[in-house]
Structures are given as structure tokens and as C-alpha cells.
Amino acid sequence: MISAPAVPALVQVLVDAINAADTEAFVAAFTPDGFVSDWGRVKSGPEGVRSWALSDAIGAGAHMTVLSAETDGDTARIRFGWSSRVFNGESDGIFVVEGDKLASFTIPPAH
After folding, report:
1. pTM above the 0.85 mark?
2. InterPro entries from the xrefs (predicted)?
């Protein structure tokens, strides 16, 4: 049996918020100056994070599945499967933790 990857707790909070279509939990996972960087398009602060969630994730009916995860200090890197009305496929995600919140969630451009 294949075991699920060990996903850092704050990353799991974000994944759970997306999969439960819970915008408030998604926004609350970030620091006040936290941001999402999606292929270089940066949305920062609570309203920026909320706008990304509504346009590209929760508002697009997204479902996120963590395929692999590794953590080094305050940075977690995952490979995830994504299905939504905006994008379907696999991507990388880089999360930076600050205290008990996420400082950032970056989806780098595919190579």
C-alpha cells in the first residue's frame, strides 16, 4: 500500500480549505502580508489572497491532491494534482511558513 506524503500542517490547512471551498479558512491561513504567486502573478494581503482564491481556486471549483511533499526549515515544497474550471494537471507548490501562518504560496511557471 502506498502511504500518503507527510504534508506540513499549515499546507494541509490550505489544501483542506480549497477542497472544502472555504474561502475564509484559505485567507485565514496566511499572515496579514502573505501572498500567492501564481506563475509570477502576485496577489498579496488578505484581499489579494481572497481574490486569487475566488478567481483561480475555490471560485473555479478546484480540488487539490498532494502527490509528494518535502520540508526544509520554514519552506515546504509539494507536487500536487489540480482540477478546476481554470486548470487541470500537476504543478509544484512552494510554501513559506512564518510562525503559525503561511507567508507565501508560490506556483512557479512550468518548465
Report:
1. yes
2. NTF2-like_dom_sf
CATH number at 17 reads 3.10.450.50
The rounded Cα 98 to chain-centroid distance in angstroms is 15
Residue 1, domain member (yes or no) = no
Using left for φ > 0, alpha for ψ between -120 and 50, and beta otherwise, residue 20 falls in: alpha
Residue 4 forms part of a structural domain: no
90 and 82 in contact (C-beta within 8 Å)? yes
Q: Is the pLDDT of residue 84 over 70?
A: yes
What is the Cα–Cα distance from 16 to 8, expressed in whole angstroms? Answer: 12
In a domain, 13, yes or no: yes
Hey, is 11 helix, strand or coil?
Answer: helix
The three grid cell numbers given for residue 110, joined into one nine-digit string: 512550468
- Asked whether residue 46 carries a pLDDT value surpassing 60, the answer given is yes
Total domains in the fold of the chain: 1
